[in-house]
Each structure stands twice: as C-alpha cells, then as structure tokens.
Amino acid sequence: MAELQDVVGRSRQTGGGITRPPTRYIRSQGVPEVVRQHAAAFPDALALICDDARLTYGELDAQSDGLATYLLSSGVKKGDVVCLLVPRSLETVVAKLAILKAGAAYLPLDPAYPANHLQYVLEECSPKVVFTTRHHNPDLVAISGSGSRIVDLSTVLQCLGPGDASRFPNVEGKDLAYVMYTSGSTGRPKGVSVPHRGVTRLVLEQNYVDFCPEDVVLNSSTISFDASTLDVWGALLNGATLVIMSKSNYSVTDIRDLITEHRVTSGTLTTGLFNLLADYIHEAMPSLRQIRFGGEVASPPHVKRFIASHPNCVLTNVYGPTEAICVATAFTVPSDFAAAELPIGKPIAHTPVFLLDDNHNVLPPGKSGQIAIGGDGLALGYFNRPDLTAERFISIETSQGTIRCYLTGDLAIVDEDGAFYFRGRSDRQVKINGKRIELEEIEAALRRFPRLAEAVVECRECGGLKQIIAYLRPNDSQDLSNANFVPSVMERLRNSLPAYMIPSHAIVMAEFPLTRAGKIDRASLPLPAVEHAAQDSGYSRTEEVLIRLWRDALGLEVVPADRNFFDLGGTSLQLMRVHAGLELELGKRCEVLALFKHPTVRDMARFLDGREQAPSRAAAVDQRAALQRRTMAQFRRSTP
C-alpha cells in the first residue's frame, strides 16, 4: 500500500481544485447514503459523462430520488428485485442508484442475451419492474415473468415528478444490493446475491486502489459483468467522475480516444482487453494513474510493455470471483517488474483469504490448496438456491476463529511473503476473455437437443488460444455424415446460451472413447483437424492481409474467404484484435462497425478496396441482409 500511495501521490493532478478527504468505509452503511453525502457536500461536482450528456452529483441525486419515488408508487418494496434490461448508459447508472434508494436490488441483464436465457433468469427472480429501452425486443413482454411491469427507462425519466426521500426505507450494509448471474455447473445460470457492504468495502478505504474525487473513471464493461461494479461505484462512492463508453461495439482506438478526450485517470479492464491496449496503443496516455486488470492469467510481456509506455500509471493485477464482489486479492506491479510470473497478490482490506486442503483445513505457506474467501465482500449466497449456497459457502476454523467463506474452486500456492499464485481449477470451470464459463452448463444445453444421444464439452488449447470444443454423438447414424447436423445444433445452442459460451468447434463422433471404468475418456477426445491452406494466387493484397489477421486472431491455419467471422468461432475480443491490426496496416481509422457489416474476408476486402459487389439478384441481397443481421446479433451478445 505504501508503494501504491507513493506512485499515486506523484501522479495525481488536482488541477488546483479542493482536495477532499477519502470517504470512510462504514460496514453498516448502504450505498445511497454515501452517494447522497457527496451530493450534499458538492452538488455541482460532475458525476456522470456519456457522450454530450452530463450530470452533476446534485442532478444525479435529484433524478434518482424521482425515479425511486416512482418505483415505490409502482408497488416496489424493500427487498424486491428490479431488472435492468438496458445497455451501458447514463440513464442506467441513475436507475441503479434509484433502485437502491427504493430499498430494492437491481438485476443487470444484457439485452443481447438469448430469449431462453433471459426467460429463465426473469422467471427465477420475478422482478417487480423490468426497465428496458424503446428499442427492446417485443418478445420481452412474453418472457418478462409473472407480475413484472415493463417500463421504458428513457421515457419514465423524462416524465418524473419531484422525489420524496421521506418515503425511502432505511438501507443498511447487510441489505441486498444486486443479483448478478454467472454460468452454472448444474446446467443453469445462478444468481449471486450481493449486499451493500460488499460494494462499499470494495472501493472505500482500500489497500489496492486509491479512488479520489479528482479521478475520472472509465466505465466500459457491460452492466451484467461484475467489473462494472468496481468502476461505477468506485467513482460515485468517492465523489469522482464516471465516463461511460456509449458504443456497444467499440474498438481499442475508441477506448484510447475516450481516455484522451476526458483525461481518464482510472479504469478496470479484462486481461484480454488490457493485452490489446499494450499491443496496439503505443503512444502514452499521460492522464492514466491507475489501471486494474483481471479475469485471466496475466501476461508478463504485456505488463512490461504497458509499464514502459506509462511509467506514472499504477498497474494492478486483481483476482476475485463474483461471489466475493470482484476483488479478493491484488498485486500492484512495481515499475522494475522483471519476473516470469505475476502473482494474484495479497488479500485486500476487510477480506481474509485462505488456502484449504481437501478437508477444509487451513494450509501453511508453500502448500497448494483451494482458495477460500471470507470477510465483508462475501455474497449473501445464491438467489433462491439454498442448496448451492450451503455447498459453496461454508464455515471454517482459523486462527482468527470460525469464519464464513466461499469455496472458489481455484487452486493456488502462497509464498512466505503472503502473496498468492494461481495454479488452476479443481473443477471444469474456465475463463475465456474474462468471462466465467461452466462447461457443464453447455453440456446440459446440448443434451436437451433430441437429436443428440450424448454431448461432451472441453476447453483446449488450439493455435495458442483457449477454445471450447463440443463433441457430439447423434441418435441417428445418418447424422454422422449430415452436413446440416452441426449447424442445426449450434443454432439451437445460440438460442439458449450467450455468444461467449458457444463452442468454436464441433466434432461429430459415432462413439466416445471410454476408460476402463466405462466413463468417457476426456483426455483421449481428439482435437479439431488442422486444415492446410491451399495455394491460391487469386487473393488480392487486401484479402491476404485480412486472412493473416483472422488466422492470428482465431488461431486457425485456414480461413475461408467466404466464411462468417463468428461462424469460425470468433468473439468480440478477437474481432477487436483484427480491427486494431487492420488500422495498423492501413495507417488510418476504420470503424469497427464495418467488420460486422462485412463479416467475411471477401466482403471486407471489397469494402476496403472500394469495390463492393453490386447486388445483381434479389435473393443475394436478402441473403446478405440476413447474414448481417445475424452477425450483428452475435457481436452484441459477445461484446465486453
């Protein structure tokens, strides 16, 4: 913490403004009370920026008061759930605060998620109100859940009357603040119930981060990703300014431009997105003083590269599951870092972390065990799932007494200095592009397809990238050679799972290899066949550049010029890598939107060369339009 404070102290620019003391962490205090204190003390301080829209703390307080009063008048009571089925926006942040003021908990859901996924979550939570936008899918009316009232958020904010804070219930640190859904090993997503103190403990009087009122904090995560908790409330609970990325499909250069335009000082990125910044943004962004990254194993070369370009920016590798409210351990990278591995760090304040053996006994340094997390950042449990809560949230005996902990399933070793080093998983959970994926959930979704006798899903290293592979055993032997079988299975899967959980490859097999005990021998399942590129002298120079960029991003040997990027297993992060490389090759800006309007190598090359194919047949036009619509939907579902 001393090193963090030293670097931050040197890099902080107050611009001659009033220096305010740090906000205290009070365990019993709810989120709204802390924000209201800032609004009362500095009502003209800037709270939110999104494109040309601005809100001061006084305006944020007043608008959220009005919306909270509307919710109470609509029958919302303390402890109820209100769903936010909206994109990242200024209005969304206002709604979050209003829901908490009304004593309810917000349920953040990505509007791009498949209808089946949304239906399951909404039915389980039965929210009193579902906030949407005017562009929401009309089918949401049918899947909103029993008794839910669907409300257009933008419209209601324009028609608000004055708020009546005297009607607001008393909100305490122990009360439910939000429910965030993660992938579930039982085949269904599970909701993590987070209390107010989990949020306040994350960003107030901490030892891994130093938010201050002079900060300008970047918010680029979707509302359904728990990293948004750190940025949104890190800013608002400390009187800082939150800058919201309005684009749903942004590029690395868009992030750089937003940081530069608003002099952003602080932000949280997935490890994959951080690596892209280190790879493609070589010019310094001098306003940055704190960047946190996490979600996957850190890359020392990328860390060193970033430090070299931004010597005054504090870089912190953070670790923590949703059940421990984003962060449990952190490692502040020293400016002279030269090691071959980054630790996930030491426990943050108010957060005891232990390593346990198979019998849940605490292990000494030097031993490998499962990470267990306790303290004020612990979730209340899983929403409406007492069975899962009892399984994963247990009490253990420590030198500090009996402590309630969450069993993470993550393996680690701790050194004599108390730093933790990640060593993998004890189960089949994986993380790709910062997203948590339970392979059992994908298997369960596949097994609901009547044409499949069995399905197995594995995460393997292919072309240097982690990729999900589905192994399919059909009921009908004719499907072994049916070219439409895999596309039909994948299309059904896309209707029930978020895009980031869709396998990159599918292999159809007549039988699965078995162990001597008669179980599926997962280690013997084959990798996808490597195709070898045929010589093709007909590619233009632009097509050759695009094919090379696609191969590097997708980890494929062969990239057909007429195949859709997402059909080849592409994700939003991989598309951002292609886009960044393309801008570097072109030496000029290119909107990332063009890549999914022209989702094949051939189409994109025609666009870049100014020789787009003229529509000659109505059928071709309809087919291309359908392809673009599908690609847009796939991209939105996988956007970070």
From TrEMBL:
Keyword Ribonucleoprotein (UniProt): no
Give the Carrier domain ranges: 537-612
PROSITE patterns, A to Z: AMP_BINDING, CARRIER
* Positions of the UniProt region annotated as Disordered: 1-23
Identify the NCBIfam families for this entry.
AA-adenyl-dom
Instruction: Tell me the organism.
Output: Rhizobium rhizophilum
Identify the stretch annotated as signal peptide in this record.
none
Keyword terms of this UniProt record: Metal-binding, Phosphopantetheine, Phosphoprotein
**Quick check: keyword tRNA processing in the entry?**
no
Q: Which SUPFAM superfamilies match?
A: Acetyl-CoA synthetase-like, ACP-like
InterPro entries xrefs: AA_adenyl_dom, AB_hydrolase_fold, ACP-like_sf, AMP-bd_C, AMP-bd_C_sf, AMP-binding, AMP-binding_CS, AMP-dep_synth/lig_dom
Q: What is this protein called?
A: Amino acid adenylation domain-containing protein
